[in-house]
């Protein structure tokens, strides 16, 4: 996208996929401790940044109408919150943070367990840091203040995230995957899902050395689980229908991502994923269905 305001800079906000998620404890302040294996799809939202005479925020895409337009604390959107926080940081450090036109192409469904808002916030931090020519890395506390998923989205590569999502370890040697994402366009409230958990002191995903081969990574994924899947499915039984529909396509593995309601199926290649996606979209035209690949650990963030 090129605007009349000047040259534009475009940043992808990739869907975050929780391939496995174990709840390992709970802090005294109520935050749950997690151990999650995360990768990122090539499909996602897209943000474009251009210098402007005054701040502007515009929207397009399938789910544009679901995005809040303001940056009020209780009902704002994370793109504008990220802009404001990074501007405050830049100006406090003595850098100029000029007005900017931000355009968000919203293709990820809201509140869907694949990090749409968090991915948008991370992409905003990356894009504006480049536009404003800020040196060094974005401070971790700034990213975390926008949400527990933002630091991992800012990292943007396959990783383990532990604690409340802020303790990140790269998943070295993680392979590219082929999958179908399905969401019945039913929003599930994350606090309600965590509140329905019966067990909060589960084992971590990995006990020992990190896998070295693609087949070992796949074996680890299959041996793990998502501790939020059953409580989310009890709250929103349509998730059972989604996982059943994915399983019927012959997926090698079917699981929910994050707190839902997006589920994914893994396939041996992109052609198989695309066939499954076409069949699912035809059978369930009201659902969000997309075939995609994920990045590997060697891809650029």
Automatic annotation (TrEMBL):
Keyword Transferase listed: yes
InterPro entries xrefs: GHMP_kinase_C_dom, GHMP_kinase_C_sf, GHMP_kinase_N_dom, IspE, Ribosomal_Su5_D2-typ_SF, Ribsml_uS5_D2-typ_fold_subgr
One of the GO BP terms on file: terpenoid biosynthetic process
Pathway terms, separated by semicolons: Isoprenoid biosynthesis; isopentenyl diphosphate biosynthesis via DXP pathway; isopentenyl diphosphate from 1-deoxy-D-xylulose 5-phosphate: step 3/6
UniProt keyword list: ATP-binding, Isoprene biosynthesis, Kinase, Nucleotide-binding, Transferase
Annotated transmembrane regions: none
SUPFAM superfamilies per record: GHMP Kinase, C-terminal domain, Ribosomal protein S5 domain 2-like
Gene Ontology terms, MF aspect: 4-(cytidine 5'-diphospho)-2-C-methyl-D-erythritol kinase activity; ATP binding
Residue ranges of every copy of the GHMP kinase C-terminal domain listed in the record: 216-285
Catalytic center residues: 16, 149
Residue runs in coiled coils: none
One Pfam family recorded for the sequence: GHMP_kinases_N
Enzyme's top EC category: transferase
Enzymatic reactions: 4-CDP-2-C-methyl-D-erythritol + ATP = 4-CDP-2-C-methyl-D-erythritol 2-phosphate + ADP + H(+)
Keyword Chaperone attached: no
Binding positions (ATP): 109-119
EC number(s) from the headed UniProt entry: 2.7.1.148
Domain GHMP kinase N-terminal, residue spans: 77-156
Family of the protein in this entry: Belongs to the GHMP kinase family. IspE subfamily.
UniProt function note: Catalyzes the phosphorylation of the position 2 hydroxy group of 4-diphosphocytidyl-2C-methyl-D-erythritol.
Protein name as it appears in the record: 4-diphosphocytidyl-2-C-methyl-D-erythritol kinase
């Amino acid at each position: 996208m090129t605007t009349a305001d000047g040259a534009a800079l475009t940043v992808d906000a990739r869907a975050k996929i929780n391939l496995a998620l174990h709840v390992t404890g709970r802090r005294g302040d109520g935050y749950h401790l997690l151990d999650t294996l995360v990768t990122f799809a090539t499909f996602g939202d897209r943000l474009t940044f251009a210098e402007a005479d005054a701040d502007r925020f515009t929207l397009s895409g399938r789910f544009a109408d679901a995005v809040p337009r303001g940056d009020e604390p209780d009902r704002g959107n994370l793109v504008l919150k990220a802009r404001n926080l990074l501007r405050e940081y830049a100006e406090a450090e003595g850098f100029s943070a000029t007005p900017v036109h931000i355009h968000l192409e919203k293709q990820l469904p809201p509140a869907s367990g694949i990090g749409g808002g968090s991915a948008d916030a991370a992409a905003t931090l990356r894009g504006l840091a480049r536009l404003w020519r800020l040196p060094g890395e974005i401070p971790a506390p700034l990213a975390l203040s926008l949400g527990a998923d933002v630091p991992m989205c800012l990292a943007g590569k396959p990783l383990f995230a532990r604690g409340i999502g802020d303790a990140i370890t790269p998943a070295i040697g993680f392979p590219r995957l082929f999958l179908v994402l399905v969401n019945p366009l039913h929003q599930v409230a994350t606090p309600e899902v965590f509140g329905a958990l019966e067990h909060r002191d589960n084992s971590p995903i990995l006990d020992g050395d990190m896998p070295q081969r693609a087949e070992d990574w796949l074996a680890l994924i299959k041996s793990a689980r998502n501790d939020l899947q059953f409580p989310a499915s009890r709250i929103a039984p349509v998730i059972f229908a989604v996982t059943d529909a994915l399983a019927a396509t012959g997926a090698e593995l079917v699981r929910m991502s994050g707190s839902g309601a997006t589920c994914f199926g893994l396939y041996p290649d992109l052609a198989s994923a695309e066939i499954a996606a076409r069949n699912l979209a035809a059978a369930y035209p009201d659902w969000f269905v997309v075939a995609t690949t994920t990045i590997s650990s060697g891809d650029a963030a």
